[in-house]
Write a structure and sequence with these properties.
- By secondary structure, this protein is an alpha+beta fold.
- The chain contains 3 helices and 6 strands; from the N terminus they run H-E-E-E-E-H-E-E-H.
- The mean pLDDT is about 95.
């Protein structure tokens, strides 16, 4: 996903900063990381407060897998499908990601 498309996707939240990182992109709002772009997929930050909401929306948690080890669940979840078609819904999910990042203190 190119930077213009990412900016458009998060426009309801406000301007985001995009930085390249480990084969993908980090997406930041007001200095806090709120999402990743990995393999053309947007993954929103979540925590133990918001993860149940992502799970209830049938989102998938991103897992990191290394050879010979168990997969590790990362604090990032897929975006609900309907959010891609409705900017207001996307803004709600982006806000949840921002709040999770603030709670994490990063």
């Amino acid at each position: 996903m190119d930077n213009d498309a990412i900016q458009d996707l998060f426009s309801g939240l406000g301007p985001v900063t995009i930085k390249r990182m480990f084969g993908g992109k980090g997406i930041y709002f007001e200095g806090a990381i709120i999402a990743l772009e990995v393999s053309d997929e947007i993954l929103l930050k979540a925590d133990k407060v918001s993860a149940p909401e992502f799970e209830a929306a049938n989102c998938r948690q991103w897992t990191y897998e290394r050879a010979g080890r168990k997969p590790v669940g990362m604090p990032y979840w897929s975006v609900p499908a309907e959010a891609f078609d409705d900017p207001d819904i996307m803004t709600e999910w982006a806000r949840r990601a921002y709040e999770a990042s603030l709670r994490a203190g990063k």
